[in-house]
UniProtKB/TrEMBL annotation:
SUPFAM superfamilies: Periplasmic binding protein-like II. Pfam families: SBP_bac_1 (PF01547). Transmembrane segments: none annotated. It comes from marine metagenome. This is ABC transporter substrate-binding protein.
Amino acid sequence: MFKLKNKMTSGIVLAMGTLFFTLPAVYAKKYDGVTVNILTMEAPQIKGPMVKRAPDFKKLTGANVNIIGVPFADIYPKMESDFATGTNSIDGAVFAPQWMVDFIEPGYLEDLAPKVKADSAIEWNDIGYFFRSFSSTYGGKIYTIPLDGDFHMIYYRTDLLDAAGISPPTTWEEYTYIASRFHGQDMNGDGTADYGSCISKKRNAQAYWMILSIAGGFIQAKGTGEGMFFDTKTMKPLVNNEAFSRALDVYKETTKYAPPDEINLDVGDTRGLWTAGRCALTLDWGDIGTLAIDKSSKVKGKTGAAILPGSRKVLDRSSGKLVSCDRARCPYAINGINHAPFAAYGGWSGAINTASNTKVKDAAYDFFSYMAQAKQSNVDVTI
């Protein structure tokens, strides 16, 4: 009996000792001690979700994810300088996908195709086809992970239009008419005159997308294969013509019904005006939708959204003139109106610096994958 007890005691001690020495290995995490520096825009809708998710990712993996926010105008030059000089202080970046070619061709960005192929958790085919192609792929390889998908649309005050018996605008002429109709009225009950239209027009920010969204309906009538920037046969820029001129006229006219400092307003400013109930119309990305239903919003239940307005006349590329739509010229027209929905900017996508340490690159990819997975992204799109 004594011997048995001694054997049992020895066995328990041995087992406890083994457990003691194996605990660190059991609880060690994949990326303990790894820090990933990710550059993006200093904005709550862009930087915010990553900052929110980084602590959860650390609990799962051990990785420290440091999100560095800078003004929009600084993202491209900071990436370019960091990569080109070999500083490589940036391990990953969440940026505009249409810039990626500028960083792929010099060899700065990691090919993520092998990682995506081996990653069942990301559910790659569940990501919208447009975004996993346009926003991610170049030369048959995957270089970015889409974290946000963007289309421009217009927003309107449903309460105002309903009370006036006016339908949402389907042409830019209707847009400017509605803007003029409500401009100067007190739309939020604070005793101050408000604005018919609020569109971001700040220089060196994101405002250049706005004029393109207006011009698209006048220039592109046969789908994305036709394009609106260049004549695909001659590569002549499609700017010196009646269509682009008309778009500029519309753009200028909206300023008549806008805040007096609209030329200096960034998208954050116009969104603030919208949620404060100070605008009848605006042109923006999907962010307005979630901001409008926030508990602090004064337009909760009063915000409608619609396809970008279009035109009954479109560019004749041979003459440079505006001509009336017909079935052949505008095959996608709705009730005779040509629309050109625009994936302005295209969203925000995460790319990885190929010069970073292998373990850091792996952690950066896993973080982008984690952000893109349905469990996280289905929540983040409502923020």
